[in-house]
Amino acid sequence: MLSIKNLHASIEGTPILNGINLEINAGEVHAIMGPNGSGKSTLASVLAGREEYEVTEGEVFFKGKNLLELSPEDRAREGVFLAFQYPVEIPGVSSTNFLRTAVNQVREYRGQEPLDAVKFLSLMKGKMKLVEIDQKLLSRALNEGFSGGEKKRNEIFQMAVLEPTLSILDETDSGLDIDALKVVANGVNQLKSPDKATIVVTHYQRLLDYIVPDFVHVLFQGKIVKSGTKSLALELEEKGYDWIKEELSGTSA
Amino acid sequence: MSKDNEILEEFTSKEYEHGWSVNYEADEAPLGLNENIVRWISAKKEEPDWLLEWRLKAFKTWESMTEPTWANIKYPKIDFQSLRYYSAPKQKNKSKDINEVDPELLKIYERLGISLNEQKRLQGIAVDAVLDSVSVGTTFKDTLSKLGVIFCSFSEAVKEHPELVKKYLGSVVPSTDNYYAALNSAVFSDGSFCYIPIGVRCPMELSTYFRINAANTGQFERTLIIAEDNAYVSYLEGCTAPQRDENQLHAAVVEIHAAENAEVKYSTVQNWYPGDKSGKGGIYNFVTKRGICAGNHSKISWTQVETGSAITWKYPSCILKGDYSVGEFYSVAVTNNYQQADTGTKMIHIGKNTRSRIVSKGISAGKSQNSYRGQVQVMKRASNSRNFSQCDSLLMGNNCGAHTFPYIDIHNATSKVEHEATTSKIGEDQIFYCNQRGISSEDAVALIVNGYAKEVLNQLPMEFAVEAQKLLALTLEGSVG
Fold first, then answer.
1. How many CA atoms lie within 13 A of B429 on its CB side?
2. What are the counts of helices (DSSP H) followed by strands (DSSP E) for chain A?
3. Could you tell me which of B133, B180, B185, B208 has the C-alpha nearest to residue B288?
4. Hey, is B257 helix, strand or coil?
5. Do B3 and A49 touch (CB under 8 A)?
6. Which residue has the higher pLDDT, B135 or B452?
7. Complex ipTM, two decimals?
8. Of the candidates A81, A74, A117, which has an alpha carbon nearest to the alpha carbon of residue A96?
9. How does pLDDT run across B92-119, given as a tens digit for each residue?
């Protein structure tokens, strides 16, 4: 589904990603871990098409299409979803109105009829149960005055409504207490299906107790330096990232 | 090029939609302004002597005044002698029956999306159509007159209801009020007149659609709205003008009188030609709008969506004379390219327990300058009066300016005045967030700007709120919806 080959990216001339290679198939959950500044969030942003990042080398194919040639909105319409680490506030625009605009633009791109208010509302109602989100939150202005937990829950709710093929969760666990974490993880698990894939970007293994990855990759200095299964995350938890750093300097020495 | 810049590029390339003009045979005053022109206009309109005298007095006042320079706007000095002060389409018959209006003139309004055909009109909205210096027709007059509501052109009111005109003309905005009000008082040619009798709730929206067509001609209209005790009316004005390289002058006066327990809602969607991308041409819009809450428990509410004009100089105000009277001002002012807007309100609290609310939302893009100027004055006897002001500015790009000039003048210790102000920028983060959900940048800006202006747009009558949203979208194309 997603094929990343030798991806290099920089911001304002500073290289951040230095040759990422990653293959993701439908039905898989991949966790990307790594110390602060290793390029985890940059990778998420580059996949979503954030303009500040310049791709200097490499290629990314998504469902056979060259992802890097698509505008951010077309990537979204093709089914790439990014759950933001810091969701922005849009004053005066209700979550409902925002999401309906989004859903209908995606549908238009796919040659589907737009949903009228009634149909959209019933779609929303179903998804609300799935992620345990309160309707009151959705009639408020998008993310305005939301707590950290409410913002993250709203991200997962949007993901549920938009039904993306590839979901990228960028540090969705940051700032969440354990209860909120469970709710968010539960929502993500409910949305899992054999034709969809998920990338979980996280600093801690805590989230992975609830969203169990098929593969774990450790990112360091803009490269995937180690890949494994769930046990790698546990090992990291135990030994810390310094272990990876030492191991790397050991091999290069 | 950053995303913001790209959007702004797109947005500045949008053309003005109503820039066309038509040729028709016109009845025009000679160029220039002097006492004889004032007499010429008055004679043309077959006015009574008292009105001619009133005009001449105003003209003398105007001659003794100098153009105000305190506003935060820059423009070359206006040559008042190079303008024409009256231009009217020659109509085959002078009937004011809407069914007998020259079809060619009706076509102009059809093209603007304003059908004057009563059968085709949206039910519930009566329209007075003003073309250059005259009213060409008013719809639903008969329906309204059954309730005692008078809705007609100003000229007609002078003829049919001289006692009302004489009583209220200049009672809220005296001809000595300011330079442009004096000019308007001397040369005003037409406009709308509304009178809502005691206890009548006007069942339909009344509206005036102003269109400037002729070149080198100023439009000087006057609107007078009188709501008697316990009366209610909602009034809306809209305006457009052809795209011309020269600047054109529009200096209007609106007066509102609200008696005891009366309520007047006045909404404006201003879309005069704003000039081209390089700042050439466009309407100079110098307007004086003021209402008096004369009776206790009366209410006047101004809502304006200002998207057009090269220069906007306009401060719809409320004199809160009656005890417990309420004044409101809701404004969205959008400037793009080289547009300049200096707009706001005055709330003068005279009566006890008076309340006022100001919500101003400025949006600046391109190389435009957008200023809010507001005055809140609480007089000595206005005990327990309250004011709340909210002035927000939204900036798009790095080449525009937003300014706020609040004046607060309080002479009563029991009163409470609050002022809040914010300045924000449409962020790349917000746009990217929308993009990531599948929303195009253009629609994202539309969504963000409409969200920002929502509190004001919500005040507009439903039919016009939708129009106003579209207009915001067009003005900020690549940017509003």
1. 10
2. 9, 12
3. B180
4. strand
5. no
6. B452
7. 0.95
8. A117
9. 555 556 666 666 666 766 666 666 655 4
CB contact under 8 A, B432 and A81: no
**Residues B475/B335, Cβ–Cβ less than 8 Å:** no
Q: Please answer whether residues B343 and B314 qualify as being in contact, where contact means their C-beta atoms are separated by less than 8 angstroms.
A: yes
Biggest CA-to-CA distance, chain B: 68
d(CA B248, CA B272): 10
Pairing of strands B340-349, B205-211: unpaired
Q: Is B423 on the interface with A (CB under 8 A)?
A: no
Query: What's the token pair of residue B285?
Result: 């819009």
* Identity of the residue in B432, B437, B451 whose CB atom sits nearest the CB atom of A141: B451
Residue of A54, A85, A98, A161 to mutate when probing chain B, most B C-beta within 10 A:
A98
Classify residue B91 by its DSSP letter. P
**Cβ atoms within 10 A of the Cβ of A43, count?**
28
* The two structure tokens encoding residue B45: 């309109």
The number of C-beta contacts closer than 8 angstroms across A and B is 76
* pLDDT tens per residue across span B377-394: 999 999 999 999 999 999
CB contact under 8 A, A50 and B432: yes
Chain B contact for A51, CB < 8 A?
yes
Three-class secondary structure of residue B221 per DSSP: strand
Per the listing, tokens 């609050």 go with B418
Q: Give this prediction's pTM.
A: 0.81
Backbone angles phi, psi at B20, to 5 degrees: -80, 165
Token couple for B399: 């080449």
